[in-house]
Amino acid sequence: MSSKWKEEQHPTFINFISSFLRANSLRLNFVSIAPDLIFNCGGVSVAFVFLTSCDSNFSLVFERVQKLKGQFAHLYVVVTVPSEEQNDCFVRCLLKSKLELGKPPFVAAEDLQMGFEKIVKIALACGACKQLDVLSKLTVEREQAVQVMDVFVRVVSSIPGIDSHDAHALNQVIGSIEAIARASKEYIVENTDISSEKADSIVRFFRDPDFYMTSKFGERKQFQNKLL
């Protein structure tokens, strides 16, 4: 909360804010900031301009909002308008201003308490959306990792005598196919549970063209025999 904004409010309202934040497991700090309020929820910062009186000079308010709009990606303006006449007056002033409608969003409230409750709900909603976005990205990354691993296992298990268990062991200890191609027989045997014979097949597969072609020819021969 802005220290300057706090000094402009009645102490009972500040006490209400403090109690309301505690009830929602949020902490209140007084700092020197440009907006009236900033919430950090779910890894996102949400800034607010909170007009608690309709006696404000709206032209100055709109100029301030215009500056803040360029500084904060998530900015909201909450306005307390107790009567319909005050609401209409504010809307007319807003339409005459140079602000683009909806950027930032303006939110009306009938009283101070309702206005602050709306602020907290907006901040928590922004945080929840951010967390959902992060979870969605993590899900996509996990799916991509599974697909990459599936391709890795299929490639490595195409080596004669190597099964999926061996492929996973090589991935955990050595890593990429390029690293496996560079690994020595001794290193593979010492650092995995792969037998000496299988390690020899792996090394020869990547380094001996004759062995590679022979194994492929043998696979084609077996496939042809199955067809016959």
Automatic annotation (TrEMBL):
<dbReference type="GO" id="GO:0010845">
    <property type="term" value="P:positive regulation of reciprocal meiotic recombination"/>
</dbReference>
<dbReference type="InterPro" id="IPR010994">
    <property type="entry name" value="RuvA_2-like"/>
</dbReference>
<dbReference type="Pfam" id="PF14520">
    <property type="entry name" value="HHH_5"/>
</dbReference>
<dbReference type="GO" id="GO:0005694">
    <property type="term" value="C:chromosome"/>
</dbReference>
<dbReference type="InterPro" id="IPR039172">
    <property type="entry name" value="PTD"/>
</dbReference>
<protein>
    <submittedName>
        <fullName>Uncharacterized protein</fullName>
    </submittedName>
</protein>
<dbReference type="GO" id="GO:0005634">
    <property type="term" value="C:nucleus"/>
</dbReference>
<dbReference type="GO" id="GO:0000712">
    <property type="term" value="P:resolution of meiotic recombination intermediates"/>
</dbReference>
<dbReference type="GO" id="GO:0007140">
    <property type="term" value="P:male meiotic nuclear division"/>
</dbReference>
<dbReference type="GO" id="GO:0007059">
    <property type="term" value="P:chromosome segregation"/>
</dbReference>
<dbReference type="GO" id="GO:0009555">
    <property type="term" value="P:pollen development"/>
</dbReference>
<dbReference type="GO" id="GO:0048236">
    <property type="term" value="P:plant-type sporogenesis"/>
</dbReference>
